[in-house]
User: Fold these one by one.
Assistant:
Number 1:
Amino acid sequence: MPAVNAPACCLLERELHLVLVRYARLCDERDWTLIDQVFSADASACYGGWALPDRAAILAMLRNNLGGCGPTQHLLGNLEVRIDGQAVSSRTAVRAAHQGAGPKAAQTYECMGHYHDRWCRTEDGWRIAHRAMVVTLEYGSRTLLGPAA
C-alpha cells in the first residue's frame, strides 16, 4: 500500500478494533443489544465448524453458550487487516476464558484460536459480514457452557 494511504489504513484498523472491542463486551457483559453494533444485518458465521446462517443464529449461539456461564474474558489481539480492492478482511487472535456457574463454578474452559472476519461498511460504520472461528487449543470442559436457567 502506498505511504499516502497509511493514515487511512490506520484509521480503518482502529475502526475495526473498536468493533472487536464491542464484541468482547457483548460476550463478557452479556450485553446482547450490542449485536447490531458488531455484525451486519445479513451476517453469517462458522464457529469451530458450527455454521450459523444469520445474525439471529449468531446471537442464539452466544446466548446458549454464555447465558448460563459464569464470568468470561474474551481477549482479542494481533489484529491483521487486509485490503484487496474494496474487500476488507481481518485475522484476530482470540483467547476466551470461561468459568462455570452454580454447581459448575469450580470448572473452567479456555479456548484459543483466530477469528477470520470479512467486513462490510454500513451507514452505521464497519460491521462483520462473516466470521469464521478456528480453535487451535482448548483446556477444560465445554460442559460448563450453557444457556441461562
Number 2:
Amino acid sequence: MIGDLARILLDVVTPVAVCAAIGFTWARMKQPFDSQMVTRLVSNVGVPSLVFSTLVNVEIGGELFMQMALAALLTSVFFFAIGYVILKLTALPIRTYLNPLAFANTGNMGLPLCLLAFGDQGLALGIAYFVVNVILLLTVGIAVASNEYRLQDVLKRPFLYAVIAAGFFMTSDVEVPKVLLSTSELLGNFSIPLMLITLGFSLATLQIVNLRRAVFISFCRLGIGIPVGFGSAALMGFTGAAYGTLVLMCSMPVAVITFLLAENYGADGKSVAGAVIISTLASFATMPVLLWVLMGG
C-alpha cells in the first residue's frame, strides 16, 4: 500500500518538477525565451481551449462545479481577511503584500497538480476554482495594487467566454461539433507544460531583495493556505477529488502574476518577487507531504 502510494506521488510530482526544471535550466543557459509572448499565448489561446475542452468532456455536474466556484469565493474572502490582519499587525504595506497573501499560483502549478493527482475530474474542478480566482485577481487584485477597479480587464479575457460556451453545451442537449472539440483539445494540450516551463523560467530570472520579509510572506501564504483549504473543504462537505482539489488550490505558493501586478501598477514588485521564489521552492517540499495525506486518506 505504501509502495503504491509512493509510486503515485512520484508520478504526480515528477512531471511538475521536470517541466519547471526545464524552464529554470533554459533561463540559466541564457537561451532565448519570450516570457511575455508565451504568457499571452497560454492565457489567450491555451487556457481558454483547455477550459472548454475539459468542461465539455468531463461529467462533474453543474451543481458540483458551482459548489467549487463558491468554495473559491469563500476561501478568497478568508485569505483577504487574514492577510489584511497580518499586514496591519506587522505594519507591512497592504498595497504590496495583500495580493501575494491572497492569491495562490492556481494556474501554473495548481491546475497541473489537480490533473496529475485527481485526473480529468480534478482538472475540471480545478478550473472552477481557477476561473473565480482569475476574476478576483483582475478586479480586486488590480484594485489593491493600483487603487483602481477595472471590470473591462475581466471582460476582455477569452477564458471567460470559454466558460460560457462550455456552460451552454453542458446544460443543453446540443452536441459539441467534433471539429471544435478536437481543435480545443489540441490547443489546450500545450497549456500545462508551457505554464510549468514558464514557472521555472520565472524562478530563475526573479531576484530576492529582502530575504527576511520574503520568507515571512512566503510562509504566511503557505501557513494560511493549508489550514484554510482543509477547513473549507470540510465546511463545504467535499469528499474525494473535490476535497483534494480544494486543499491543493488553497495550498499553492504565491502567484507569479502578483509580481507582475505590483510591477505594472506601481507597488513594490521586487519585494514580491522574493516571496514568489521562496514560497514556490518551499511548496516543492510541502507538496509531497500534502499529496501523501490527500491521496492516502
